[in-house]
Design a protein that fits this description.
Double Stranded RNA Binding Domain, 7-stranded mixed sheet, alpha/beta, transmembrane helix, 9 strands, 39% helix, single chain, membrane
Length: 212
């Protein structure tokens, strides 16, 4: 008795039905869905939320200079959600109030550093923009100094809206947030919030690049 495996030649070509074009498409659909999902996920993976955008084309295309200012009118500090005035009044020592003012400066300097590093061809100037020029307003909405005291530690955090405007009219607006862990290597809130500021400046620069 011949016990050799049955080959297509022995069984005949019709014993192995060919896959129809429709079956091939059905077979490929899961892979196509996966690829499309990954592509959309990559596009959505940006460190900001768009609130308002100009264009197309974007009003930020070809920008060569921007001025930057800071707004604390909407800030809420710590998990208590205090305004800046309430936060300063709640500090028991002058040195604590001084620390907060120093962290503000550290974050603001960091934002400019993040912008200039990532937009080397754009001049970033503190203050009010000239007529017709782009104004960046960093509107802080949430602020946490953080704490490092050995076994007791929690991160510094900033949430802000970055508004691009011209002559008082909002062109683009994004919401950004970041945090920096408090540790033996980052014990000072000034240090942590400077890093947070650099990161927010980087995010804003990336948005400008993407928009243009």
């Amino acid at each position: 008795m011949d016990l050799a495996p049955l080959s297509p030649e022995r069984l005949g070509r019709d014993s192995f039905p060919r896959m129809s074009a429709l079956d091939r498409i059905r077979h490929l659909i899961p892979s196509l869905v996966l690829v499309l999902g990954l592509a959309m996920g990559a596009m959505a993976c940006v460190p900001w939320t768009v609130i308002t955008s100009s264009g197309p084309p974007s009003a930020l295309v070809g920008v060569t200079a921007m001025s930057i200012q800071y707004d604390y009118s909407n800030i809420r500090i710590s998990d208590k959600g205090l305004s800046e005035e309430e936060w300063l009044a709640s500090r028991e020592k002058d040195e604590h109030r001084a620390t907060y003012l120093e962290t503000k400066d550290s974050a603001n300097i960091g934002i400019i550093e993040g912008l200039t590093k990532n937009l080397p061809n754009v001049q970033i100037v503190p203050g009010q923009a000239q007529p017709g020029a782009i104004q960046i307003t960093v509107s802080y909405t949430a602020w946490e100094e953080g704490m490092y005291a050995g076994v007791v530690a929690w991160p510094s955090k900033i949430t802000a809206r970055i508004i691009f405007s011209r002559d008082g009219q909002t062109l683009d607006e994004i919401s950004v947030n970041t945090a920096e862990d408090a540790s033996l290597f980052t014990p000072a809130p000034q240090q942590r919030l400077h890093t947070c500021g650099q990161r927010l400046g980087q995010f804003a620069a990336q948005y400008v690049k993407k928009a243009s």
